[in-house]
Structure formats: structure tokens, C-alpha cells
Amino acid sequence: MKEITYLEAIKQAMDEEMTRDPSVFILGEDVGIFGGAFRATEGFLEKYGTWRVIDTPLSESGFTGAAIGAALAGMRPIVEMQFADFITCSFDQLVTVAAKNHYRWGAATPIVVRAPCGGNIHGGPFHSQCIEGYFFNVPGLKIVFPSTVYDAKGLLKAAVRDNDPVIYCEHKYLYRRIKDSIPEEDYVVPIGKARVALEGNDVSVITYGAMVYTALEAAQRLKEQGCSVEVIDLRTLLPLDNKSLFDTVKKTNKVVVLHEQTKTGGVGAEVSALINEYCFDYLDGPIIRIAAPDTPVPYSPPLEEAFIPQVKDVVSAVEKLMRY
Predict the structure, then answer these.
(1) Whole-prediction pTM value?
(2) Which residues pair with residue 54 across a beta bridge?
(3) What is the phi/psi pair of residue 42, to 5°?
(4) What are the Cα distances from residue 143, in Å, to 7, 88, 239?
């Protein structure tokens, strides 16, 4: 099998879903002639035409609302945000309309919103945010955040086929930095299921997105010290896979929660609360959260490096927990 990148996996998923189902179409700024800000839809306009690859004006609220309307009429739109940061312009459409349709009158709203997010690209405060926390407490939405090439393709295909609105967070730092060989045949990765990225017995690091690789590198360094770290990749943030969370806590009894988004009110806070509420008797020490500080993402590379959690932060947290 040929190796492909994380970005190519996203492109393949959209291409295959558009071929499989004529109701799937793409819309967003520059997705047609230009092929997308990151070239995820390059060649799609020539292959599928202007009715299924639609360049839109710079109006996230407008084209997200149009996608919701199309979904209610039986289509399956994929909305591309050039940068996840701009998804806030469509917040009302997603939270007030898309997320509520099923509750209000039982309507399916099968839209996928692709959100290229994350830092480490020196994009500054308007092009580097992780946005999952904004939507994390909105019933009616689903949020997925793949870290691997396999999951990038399988979760996107699952999202397209889902009847609920799905926010698909794709980390820009991973686009061309990771490669893998994946099956040629059709497959999906079920929404709502975490995975064990690395098995271990002493401490659990629960994380997602690009931070999975930070956790794995830290685990390798800690292994040299005789510490066995288990890394849990959440893959789906909404709904969380509580069983996988609780299973790893019961196994290792020590937990670090790691994510790139800012700390206050982030996904890590909910994960910590769940573990505290349902697994307190299994804990041998405090749950440690590692996250970005509560500031905008800095533009300066040294400051951005200080902002994003690093391997040494994970190593230090695990060493602290091991002393309990």
C-alpha cells in the first residue's frame, strides 16, 4: 500500500464520499478554482463541477446557513473553513440552528464542518486556535479530532454519513508531517470510540490531535526511566468515550490530561471531572491537566513554543505523579 499524508487522507475521504453519494457536495471560500487554502479540494471542481464544488463569498455564517438548509433538503454538505478560527462567525448557525434541529422537530442535519485548527505553524492569534472548546457543551453537535492518517480518513467518512452535524477538527501541523499506509478498501472509524495509542501500566496520558505525538514522545523518554505510560487518543470529543476513559484509570490509577487548547473550560476539565466523579476510588494521585495558558496564540515562534504544551511538560507531570 502507498503511504499518504494526513491531508491526502482527508482529500481521499471527500473524493470517495462524493463518488459514492451524489448528495455530498463541498462549499467554502476558494474550494473550487484554487483548490482550497491547503489544497484539500484540488482537482475537485474539474471532476465534480460547479454544482458540487461551490466557491462562496467570504461569509462563514452565510455559507454555513446555506449548508444547513441544503442538509434539511436531503443533501450532505461538507463545509470548509479556511482556518478554524473563522468558525466563530458561523457560531449561531451551528449552535442555534444545526444543533437544535433534531430536538425541535426531529430533523436530520447531516453537515460536516471541516475546521483546520491548531498552532505550531507561526500563524498567530487568528490562524492557530483550537476551537473544540467553543462547541464542547452544545448538545446536538458531534466533534471529532483525528490524530492519525487512518483516522483522518475513516472519521471524515463516518462524519459525512452521520445524520447529525459534525465538527471535524483537523490539525494543520499534521497535514504533511505524518504519513501512513491505509487500506485501499472502503472503511469508516466509528464516531464515539477512543483508542489506545500506546499500552502502559503506570500512568495514563489522555489526549487527542497533535498532542498524541507529544504524549508518545514523552512516553518513549519515560520508558528509558522504567516508567510505562499508556496513551489514550480520544478521537471523538463529543460524545466522549467514557468507558475507555474509566478503563485506563482503573488500570494505571494515575492520570495526565493533555491538550493544546487553553486550559480553562477545556476538554481536559470535563475529562478530569468525569474521572473524579466516577473513578475517584481508583486514583492514587491528583489528575494533572497540561494545556495551553489562557492567552491568545502568540505569533512569535519562541512564544508560541512556550504556549503549546511540550514533551518536557508531560515528562515532568508524569514524574510528579510517579512520586505518589
Answers:
(1) 0.97
(2) 27
(3) -60, 130
(4) 18, 15, 7
